[in-house]
Design goal:
The protein is mainly beta. It has a single domain, classed as Porin (Beta Barrel), CATH 2.40.160.20. Helix content is about 15%, strand content about 55%. The chain has an eight-stranded antiparallel barrel. It has a four-stranded antiparallel sheet with strand order 4-7-8-11, with helices on one face. A hairpin with a 4-residue loop joins strand 9 and strand 10. The protein is elongated and about 80 Å long. About 35% of the residues are buried.
Length: about 240
């Protein structure tokens, strides 16, 4: 469904651009560089905190900063490339305790101690077509994007199972690093401050099947066993840009 939405958005942008070829557009849109900052909000399974859902990511809302550039190669149709860095938080004490309780029940041990270390840190590199509608000092941008997400780290979870005989076993869900395919779309509203500068509000949706996750001392035969972490984000940003 999400891939279909991205394909439909791309098709609409191309159809709108094709239709304007037969029209006399007197005011074309200028290429620009945009500096943005805001919030990256996890959605779907990425944001869920359900022990029994192996796709639940326990991700949190965090900051996003980035740089994007748009090159208008035909009237109001541009190619846009965007680079963003986002932090999606860490496992809270409640998250770790809930996971420890879940594993303790699944493995039927005396008790379990959980430890969470590290954060979701990643970079998105996305590009695609953008079509812009201009009304006086306002510009509405619609875009579709494909690209990659580069993960530098994800939270590491360690569960120590302790028995009454004082023997223990430590299970770990390891930090995931790597590069995966991503796609999405977005819309933005710009307001011109003059001939060269403008401010903008933007919302972007990004989706990916996610990163492979490795585990230590977990046979995967019972309880929660995460082998891949899907990523879905809604990024809302405020930016200031300069026309080229």
């Amino acid at each position: 469904m999400k891939k279909t939405l991205t394909i439909v958005t791309t098709t609409l942008i191309i159809l709108i651009a094709s239709k304007t070829q037969a029209q006399d557009i007197k005011e074309y849109v200028k290429s620009y560089i945009n500096f943005v900052g805001g919030f990256s909000i996890p959605t779907g399974n990425f944001a869920k905190t359900d022990y029994n859902n192996n796709s639940a990511g326990f991700a949190k809302r965090g900051p996003v900063f980035g740089l994007e550039g748009a090159y208008y190669f035909y009237k109001n149709l541009a190619f846009v490339a965007a680079l963003t860095y986002q932090d999606q938080g860490e496992l809270s004490q409640n998250d770790v305790q809930n996971l420890a309780n879940g594993y303790n029940t699944s493995f039927n041990r005396d008790y379990a101690i959980g430890t969470g270390v590290g954060r979701y840190n990643s970079v998105n590199i996305l590009g695609g077509p953008q079509y812009s509608f201009v009304y006086k000092k306002f510009t509405l941008d619609l875009r579709a994007s494909v690209g990659i997400i580069r993960s530098f780290s994800t939270p590491t979870l360690s569960i120590e199972f302790v028995n009454t005989t004082n023997t223990s076993v430590i299970y770990s869900q390891n930090s995931a690093k790597g590069t995966v395919f991503a796609y999405g779309g977005g819309a933005g509203l710009r307001y011109a401050l003059g001939d060269h500068w403008f401010v903008n509000l933007r919302g972007n949706y990004i989706n990916s099947d996610g990163f492979k996750v490795s585990n230590t001392n977990n046979p995967g035969t019972v309880g929660r066993f995460v082998t891949r972490q899907p990523v879905t984000e809604l990024q809302t940003t405020l930016g200031i840009a300069v026309n080229l």
